[in-house]
Structure formats: structure tokens, C-alpha cells
Backbone:
């Protein structure tokens, strides 16, 4: 079973986060469609050369959010209708991660949060102009 799920061993992002992102990206880009079956935990772990517990943890987290559904003895599938809230929570987590990284890097450059906010507001309005 060929599924578009990839991870990058050189990426500093934790493997579980890369795996979750890859599955969500596959769904968002229609490479994984509702009803598509994902590889078994063991098979995906072998294919990606990662620990099966990592795959199981991601599958379980996505199942709790309603993104995946597991049918005992049959397999794990993309749900027919992924709740919007599942994507919204993921989007919020990603945005917060980007903000944290941005603030860390700007602080390393010597900018205060107030200075960063002013620059960001100015750039946002400049970018919004046609």
C-alpha cells in the first residue's frame, strides 16, 4: 500500500509531529481521501524506519480528533468527514509554534516584544496594500 506519508530524519522537528503533519497534509491536499486506508502501525513504522509506538501514538491522537477511524481487525482509515475543529486545533498549535520561534529569533537579535509588534503591524498593513 503506497501512502504519501513522509518524514525527514534531518528535520529537527520531532518524528511524531512530522508524521502528524504529513498525514494532515495528505488529507488537505486530497492525496489521502475520506475512506482511504492507512498502513498498519507496524508497516508504516517499518516503511518510515521509526518506532511503532510513535506511529501508534499519532494514529491514536488523530483518531481522538476524528481525523482517523480504526476498525478492529480491518485497519485505520481517513474519516468520511473530518471535523473542522480537528484542523483548527492543529492550525492553532502550528501558529503558536511559529510565533514562539519568531519571538525567540527576534529576541536574539535584540528586539523587544513591543518593537516586534510595531514592525509586524507595519509589515502587515504594507503587505495588505495592492
Residues:
Amino acid at each position: 500500500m503506497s501512502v504519501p506519508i513522509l518524514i525527514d530524519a534531518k528535520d529537527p522537528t520531532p518524528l511524531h509531529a512530522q508524521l502528524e503533519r504529513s498525514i494532515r497534509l495528505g488529507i488537505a491536499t486530497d492525496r489521502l481521501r475520506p475512506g482511504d486506508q492507512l498502513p498498519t502501525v507496524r508497516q508504516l513504522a517499518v516503511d518510515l524506519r521509526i518506532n511503532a509506538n510513535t506511529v501508534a501514538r499519532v494514529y491514536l491522537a488523530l483518531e481522538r480528533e476524528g481525523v482517523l477511524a480504526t476498525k478492529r481487525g480491518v485497519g485505520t482509515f481517513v474519516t468520511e468527514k473530518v471535523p473542522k475543529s480537528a484542523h483548527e486545533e492543529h492550525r492553532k498549535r502550528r501558529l503558536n509554534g511559529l510565533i514562539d520561534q519568531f519571538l525567540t529569533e527576534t529576541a536574539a537579535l535584540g528586539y523587544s516584544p513591543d518593537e516586534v509588534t510595531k514592525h509586524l503591524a507595519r509589515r502587515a498593513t504594507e503587505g495588505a496594500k495592492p
